[in-house]
Amino acid sequence: MLGEPSTSQHLSETIAMASMRKKPSYLDVSAVHEALEEPPRKKARNVTTCKLLESKRAKQDHENELAEVAIVCEPEHSSLMMGGLHPRGSLYERPVNIDIAKAQHAEFRNLLRTHGVRVLTVREILAYNVETNIGARVDLENLALSTLKYGMAAGHQVIENMGVSQLVDTIMIQPTVHITPSYRDTGLSATYTFEPLSNLVYTRDQQITTCKGIVMGRLRSQQRQREVQVMHFCIEKLGVKVVGQIQEPGFLEGGDFFPLGQDLALLGVGLRSNPAAARQLMDQDLLGSKRFAVVRDEFDRNQDRMHLDCVFSVVSDTCCIMLEDIMGEASPLRRLVDEYVRDPETGKYSLKRQGLELASFVREEGYNIIPIKAEHQLAYACNVLNLGGSRIISVHASSARQMVRSPHFKGDVCVIDFSSITSMYGSVHCASQIIKRVPSALVPVGDDEKQNGV
Length: 454
What we know:
Blueprint: H1 7-21, H2 24-35, E1 66-72, H3 77-84, H4 98-114, E2 118-121, H5 122-127, H6 134-147, E3 149-150, H7 156-160, H8 164-173, E4 175-181, E5 188-194, E6 207-209, E7 214-216, H9 227-237, E8 242-245, E9 257-259, E10 264-269, H10 275-283, E11 291-296, E12 312-314, E13 319-323, E14 336-342, E15 349-357, H11 358-364, E16 368-372, H12 374-377, E17 385-386, E18 391-394, H13 397-405, E19 412-415, H14 419-422, E20 433-438, H15 445-451
Parallel strand pairs: 1-2, 3-4, 7-8, 10-11, 13-16, 18-19
Antiparallel strand pairs: 1-20, 4-5, 6-7, 9-10, 11-14, 12-13, 14-15, 17-18
């Protein structure tokens, strides 16, 4: 029988938590929680949440608005190690050096913070307040228990005696314990199988943030479907309301979604997201935009261009980048746009136009296009992160130079080395979920001029 945790176990947990408290993202969670804490008379079961947003709502109207809060997932050593044992089977492009990946991701997080973004990591959200609040502890135990399976046993007692880091590790590696009689020693023998969350570093995909709030997605690949549960838990722990969730037969991945203001949102459908998810977003009025452009990938459907953010990105209010090979009516890889318009009285969307070529459509919307070469796209040149005000993070130096030389782009580009992260088939846009941006109307005049590229 398992006894109470030992004094040494408590000491190690205290040291581990003290170390975690020194990390900037933990301090982000703690500082916001303390700043927004409710008076004691209002506290009840919801003290287990971190009150991240005053409105308790996530919101993102436009990709070029100032980013305020981002959720990222630091590369997890155990889950990445397992995923790296067979890269293609884990949806990776090539083998991964975990130590380099962790270092590059740390630099990415630091860069976000230098631009004023509050950065929260998945591990620290999961661990936050667990040491001091029994409700938070039980919530995390329940999540861990849902990921831990036994061939012939119950895991409650094991879970209750785990340290915080053990609980988080269990969630990240999703173990199954197979028990068989051994007829000696303890009388039992255990073997283990795991279904690690090896792609959770890409926090873009499990949800989208619209003008209405956060909508949980449904991931197409079997290896990634369990990520949604973990991210849903994190978002609710932050006190942020989830406004909707895509159900079967819909598939929705965040890399396919771009908000372009309260007038327009884009969603790519093809290899990952599908029309059923687009229909659910409209039917449940989850977008908050007057128009909705469904961008169909019917002729390409290639893993190298799996999401819309692999071939397109918005870098200012009037400028975007796009893979040149998909541009034009004659392109064999072209994307086609179906435009839906919302009836303000009924809240229902109806098809207005269909089959529009994507480059022509975005030009019609007032965007100048900087074309990206195919070989640059394969190096993740299109997958940039816009922190608002045309402050761009890129992983590709040549296309960054092309961008700043364009007369249509008035912002700044910072290039970082993200090569060990891109080996897992994604880049900086994939590796971040911006859950709150400052609406343009609330930005002070000086910053507003900057945001509009002046």
